[in-house]
Amino acid sequence: MEVFAGPLPEFMPERAPDDPVRLFLSWLSDAVADGLREPHAMTLSTVDEVGDPDARVLILKGVDERGWRFSGHAFSPKGHQLAVHPRAALTFYWPEHGRQVRLRGPVTPGSDQDNAEDFLARTDTARAEALLGRQSQYLADPAERDHALEKSLALIGEAPSLVDSAWTLYTLAPTVVEFWQATPSRVHTRLRYERTAYGWGRFRLWS
Ligand SMILES: Cc1cc2nc3c(=O)[nH]c(=O)nc-3n(C[C@H](O)[C@H](O)[C@H](O)COP(=O)(O)O)c2cc1C
């Protein structure tokens, strides 16, 4: 199968901004502007209590100088893993642009207010499902889930501002952010930002 068929955007590391947030936002804007599907989907990688890796796709909720944000249930496997090892990696891939961004660093939960705002911005069904607090548990009977969901939706109908206290808006504050740009020649371009006491260092990497 053909990969990196192009046309691919140009990336000149020597012109990259001092700060990876700005470069990330410009790559994300390029993905949005070109109509790439689900450009804000990313893989969150964590480790469990015995050090085994785990990974799943989540939606990016926001980015600024404090970090990259995502949300989920504290009682889910990823929530437990982040409670035990509050460090993670995020990976974005925009195939049509031949671009990958990977970052890693410590993860912190949001304030009660941030968590509540994120929760209340979700759809009724998504809130009702979260309130069940059973994500990733074995589902023996889908009818049991449908019944529980119905009851949870009715509860939300009666109390629309109800917030699940385990819903969490996490922030990953990266120590390393790497930008990878494919080129049709296959001599791909890589630029890694590393956080130092004095700001961000920038390093070209061999491909
Ligand atoms: C495109 C996409 C977006 C998703 N967004 C989220 C999300 O924002 N939060 C979330 O908890 N799960 C999201 N999921 C589901 C997760 O991939 C995962 O199945 C779920 O969070 C359970 O993961 P865990 O068992 O590792 O906790 C998304 C899945 C896909 C495919």
Explain how this protein is built:
The protein has 207 residues and is α+β, with helices and mostly antiparallel strands. It has a single domain, classed as Roll (Pnp Oxidase, Chain A), CATH 2.30.110. The chain contains 5 helices and 10 strands; from the N terminus they run αββββαββαααββββ. Strands 1, 2, 3, 4, 5, 6, 7, 8, 9 and 10 form a 10-stranded antiparallel β-sheet that branches. A hairpin with a 2-residue loop joins strand 9 and strand 10. Helix 4 packs across helix 5. It is elongated. The site of flavin mononucleotide has 15 residues, from strand 2, strand 4 and helix 2.
In brief:
The chain has 207 residues and is of the alpha+beta class.
Number of strands: 10
Structural class: alpha+beta
Q: Cofactors and ligands present? A: flavin mononucleotide
Report the average pLDDT across residues: 96
Strand content: 25-35%
Alpha-carbon distance between the two ends: 21 Å
CATH superfamily: Electron Transport, Fmn-binding Protein, Chain A
Order of helices and strands: HEEEEHEEHHHEEEE
CATH class: Mainly Beta
Overall shape: it is elongated
Number of domains: 1
Indicate the CATH topology. Pnp Oxidase, Chain A
Q: Per CATH, which architecture?
A: Roll
